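Sorry, explain these tokens?

___
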Amino acid sequence: MTFNKAIRQAHRWISIIFTLTVAANFATMAFGQPPAWIVYSPLLPLFLLLFSGLYMFALPYLAKRSD
């Protein structure tokens, strides 16, 4: 598997993890104030999504530049 395909696949799986952590956050808020680790748990997948998404966004521009 190439590096670009691996980044795309990782981005997809991280988005699933991010969605689950956000859903868990809202589910625990229904029962009162959730613990801090649940509130901040979506941040790590969010930053990973940011970096992988920016990389995939820049790929076409970097490919044009190398031509």
